[in-house]
Write a structure and sequence with these properties.
By secondary structure, this protein is mainly beta. It has no helices and eleven strands.
């Protein structure tokens, strides 16, 4: 069973920084890509950042230049460094991974439970 566990969320003032972590565990053979999404109340879940196994990154326009996605392969952990936070960044942030596990031939997408980020004005 693959599990993604997020941590690092919390309350921060506008202009501050947070680093989110997502630790992956279970029978993982390979990872195609890892993602950070966020969802604010009443809004659709949106893709914030993506990281492929080859190291390519993509960011939404709203966070580009402020957020950085990275991964520590030794720890099976992906990070989202969030700087210059704005109140509009307030949301539940979800880690997601497209990966191959021991049960399947094809890759599947797995989700973490989410971690709350609140940015005060």
């Amino acid at each position: 069973q693959v599990q993604l566990v997020e941590s690092g969320g919390g309350l921060v003032q506008a202009g501050g920084s947070l680093r989110l972590s997502c630790a992956a565990s279970g029978s993982i053979f390979s990872i195609n890509a890892m993602y950070w999404y966020r969802q604010a109340p009443g809004k659709q879940r949106e893709l914030v950042a993506a990281l492929t196994s080859g190291g390519s990154t993509n960011y939404s326009d709203s966070v580009k230049g402020r957020f950085t996605i990275s991964r520590d392969n030794a720890k099976n952990t992906v990070y989202l460094q969030m700087n210059s936070l704005k109140p509009e960044d307030t949301a539940v942030y979800y880690c997601s991974a497209d990966l191959y596990s021991g049960r399947y031939y094809s890759s599947h997408i797995y989700w973490g439970q989410g971690t709350q980020v609140t940015v005060s004005s």
